[in-house]
């Protein structure tokens, strides 16, 4: 006979923080669930129990360590009567990783281990589990990941954590686990390409390749308060635009809920992004948001060059709306042969040339490639025919 006892609580996110003096050295926000096999009395089969790390779990400062004085860094969370989850970290200066995971469970806790035929406190330790991140970045893994450790299985999800911290908050730069990258990243090479050509001889006049993320604050109907929302734009947005001698516009629309426009202005031999406007009508919005600013001066570059910035850029439009760009390359004027001209790269990229960017790619979750055909020639000839 198989006896399976399940104690499936709601899997909640738990925040664990280890401090040394006034500063934080390890911080972890995560959900964890455990599935443990044990021997029950009067049963010829082994029993499985599952439970999750409760939000009453607290850091055991006695067995935890920042790893500053030669010892290894270790975060131990204790919960219930004698249960514990431990993460040991190691670093080689450029990367840090979880060296091993420890699960300790107390078979005397009959609420979790009913009819256990032992009252032992069992401790199991894993070997390396493949959790690693660049120093000074936050390890992020929203996707669930399971680890088998002896008779115990631990599943982590919604993980954001950092060891060997320099500040009191998790670093804004993230090292994203492979599972998350697979589910959210569209590498630029496979990004959708939108070509607007109504004229077979149309020349491309504007080229853009970019991952876009909207950072918008609005009044949420469901939450009854103003919220800050980050929205990745789909690479499948529809694009349209126009090119004039000293002004080029690009408009991206998504299912009548989001319209984002860019205007580039050419001033003798320099061009810049002078206007961004957004109209958003999302289901949770109390009222549609309309925001624009026509006195911007972003993405400055020289005529006959493209502008490139692989690093994230924050383009503030109005207080309630900013736009985050990733892996940006754009050329709004003087495009020749349907391809980007030599790029002028942003200062951040130049500064970061020396730093290996492991996580950058993962942030560019969504990449748009837009080509706008030069239509003026056709319009002229069209108009010509009409007047005849
Ligand atoms: C911690 O903060 C207190 C008050 O801000 C300060 O007096 C103390 O010197 C700080 N200790 C360390 C180790 O930085
Ligand atoms: C169950 O009992 C067997 C036999 O005593 C032992 O070998 C095994 O380690 C036990 N399993 C667990 C999960 O305690
Ligand atoms: C516990 O259960 C296992 C498997 O059913 C059995 O082999 C073992 O002898 C039991 N141990 C005790 C102390 O009852
Ligand atoms: C294990 O659980 C029992 C019963 O809840 C408790 O009396 C005992 O102190 C616990 N052991 C440890 C090491 O906490
Ligand atoms: C740290 O380990 C990684 C991966 O094993 C390796 O690529 C890197 O060069 C190491 N860094 C140092 C400073 O040893
Ligand atoms: C991490 O940041 C600290 C202080 O900001 C710096 O001294 C250290 O070199 C950085 N480490 C790496 C690997 O970038
Ligand atoms: C876990 O990893 C830490 C850091 O490498 C190491 O000091 C410790 O001995 C390991 N624990 C076990 C039980 O292997
Ligand atoms: C979004 O905008 C708010 C307010 O300007 C800012 O505090 C926050 O850091 C931004 N978030 C991101 C991920 O850009
Ligand atoms: C355009 O160029 C003129 C002359 O060089 C300068 O006065 C003006 O400020 C420039 N305008 C912008 C928006 O850069
Ligand atoms: C916003 O969307 C709602 C529901 O889809 C629709 O009823 C409403 O007319 C839209 N408002 C605007 C200004 O487009
Ligand atoms: C428009 O952008 C300019 C330049 O960034 C800024 O000074 C101005 O405050 C913005 N306007 C609004 C309404 O936010």
TrEMBL record:
<dbReference type="GO" id="GO:0031902">
    <property type="term" value="C:late endosome membrane"/>
</dbReference>
<dbReference type="InterPro" id="IPR048524">
    <property type="entry name" value="Lamp2-like_TM"/>
</dbReference>
<feature type="domain" description="Lysosome-associated membrane glycoprotein 2-like transmembrane">
    <location>
        <begin position="355"/>
        <end position="386"/>
    </location>
</feature>
<keyword id="KW-1003">Cell membrane</keyword>
<keyword id="KW-0812">Transmembrane</keyword>
<feature type="disulfide bond">
    <location>
        <begin position="309"/>
        <end position="346"/>
    </location>
</feature>
<keyword id="KW-0325">Glycoprotein</keyword>
<keyword id="KW-0967">Endosome</keyword>
<dbReference type="GO" id="GO:0005886">
    <property type="term" value="C:plasma membrane"/>
</dbReference>
<keyword id="KW-0458">Lysosome</keyword>
<dbReference type="InterPro" id="IPR002000">
    <property type="entry name" value="Lysosome-assoc_membr_glycop"/>
</dbReference>
<feature type="disulfide bond">
    <location>
        <begin position="141"/>
        <end position="177"/>
    </location>
</feature>
<dbReference type="GO" id="GO:0005765">
    <property type="term" value="C:lysosomal membrane"/>
</dbReference>
<dbReference type="GO" id="GO:0072594">
    <property type="term" value="P:establishment of protein localization to organelle"/>
</dbReference>
<keyword id="KW-0732">Signal</keyword>
<dbReference type="Pfam" id="PF21222">
    <property type="entry name" value="Lamp2_2nd"/>
</dbReference>
<keyword id="KW-1133">Transmembrane helix</keyword>
<feature type="transmembrane region" description="Helical">
    <location>
        <begin position="353"/>
        <end position="376"/>
    </location>
</feature>
<keyword id="KW-1015">Disulfide bond</keyword>
<dbReference type="InterPro" id="IPR018134">
    <property type="entry name" value="LAMP_CS"/>
</dbReference>
<dbReference type="InterPro" id="IPR048528">
    <property type="entry name" value="Lamp2-like_luminal"/>
</dbReference>
<keyword id="KW-0472">Membrane</keyword>
<comment type="similarity">
    <text>Belongs to the LAMP family.</text>
</comment>
<feature type="domain" description="Lysosome-associated membrane glycoprotein 2-like luminal">
    <location>
        <begin position="198"/>
        <end position="335"/>
    </location>
</feature>
<dbReference type="Pfam" id="PF01299">
    <property type="entry name" value="Lamp2-like_luminal"/>
</dbReference>
<feature type="domain" description="Lysosome-associated membrane glycoprotein 2-like luminal">
    <location>
        <begin position="15"/>
        <end position="150"/>
    </location>
</feature>
<protein>
    <recommendedName>
        <fullName>Lysosome-associated membrane glycoprotein 1</fullName>
    </recommendedName>
</protein>
<feature type="disulfide bond">
    <location>
        <begin position="205"/>
        <end position="243"/>
    </location>
</feature>
């Amino acid at each position: 006979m198989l006896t399976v006892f399940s104690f499936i609580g709601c899997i909640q996110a738990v925040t664990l923080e280890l401090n040394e003096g006034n500063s934080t050295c390890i911080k972890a926000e995560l959900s964890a669930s455990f599935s443990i096999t044990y021997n029950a009395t009067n049963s010829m089969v082994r029993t499985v129990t599952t439970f999750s790390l409760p939000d009453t779990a607290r850091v055991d400062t006695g067995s935890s360590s920042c790893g500053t004085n030669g010892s290894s860094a270790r975060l131990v969370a204790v919960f219930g009567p004698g249960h514990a989850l431990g993460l040991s970290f190691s670093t080689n200066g450029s990367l840090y990783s979880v060296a091993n995971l420890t699960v300790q469970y107390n078979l005397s806790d009959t609420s979790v281990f009913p009819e256990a035929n032992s009252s032992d406190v069992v401790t199991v330790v894993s070997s390396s589990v493949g959790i690693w991140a660049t120093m000074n970045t936050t390890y992020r893994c929203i996707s669930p990941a399971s680890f088998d450790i002896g008779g115990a299985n631990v599943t982590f999800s919604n993980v954001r954590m950092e060891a060997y911290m320099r500040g009191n908050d998790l670093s804004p730069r993230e090292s994203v686990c492979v599972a998350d990258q697979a589910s959210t990243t569209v590498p630029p090479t496979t990004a959708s390409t939108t070509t607007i050509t109504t004229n077979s001889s149309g020349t491309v006049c504007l080229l853009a390749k970019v991952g876009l993320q909207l950072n918008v604050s609005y009044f949420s109907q469901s939450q009854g308060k103003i919220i800050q929302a980050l929205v990745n734009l789909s690479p499948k947005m529809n694009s349209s635009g126009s090119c004039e001698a000293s002004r080029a516009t690009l408009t991206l629309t998504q299912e009548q809920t989001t319209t984002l426009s860019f205007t580039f202005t050419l001033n003798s031999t320099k061009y810049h992004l002078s206007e961004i406007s957004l109209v958003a009508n999302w289901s949770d919005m109390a009222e549609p948001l309309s925001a624009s600013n026509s006195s911007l001066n972003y993405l400055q570059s020289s005529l006959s060059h493209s502008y490139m910035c692989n690093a994230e850029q924050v383009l503030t439009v109005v207080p309630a709306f900013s736009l985050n760009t990733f892996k940006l390359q754009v050329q709004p004027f003087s495009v020749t042969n349907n391809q980007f001209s030599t790029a002028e790269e942003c200062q951040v990229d130049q500064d970061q040339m020396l730093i290996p960017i492991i996580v950058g790619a993962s942030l560019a979750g969504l990449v748009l490639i837009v080509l706008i055909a030069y239509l003026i020639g056709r319009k002229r000839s069209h108009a010509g025919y009409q007047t005849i």
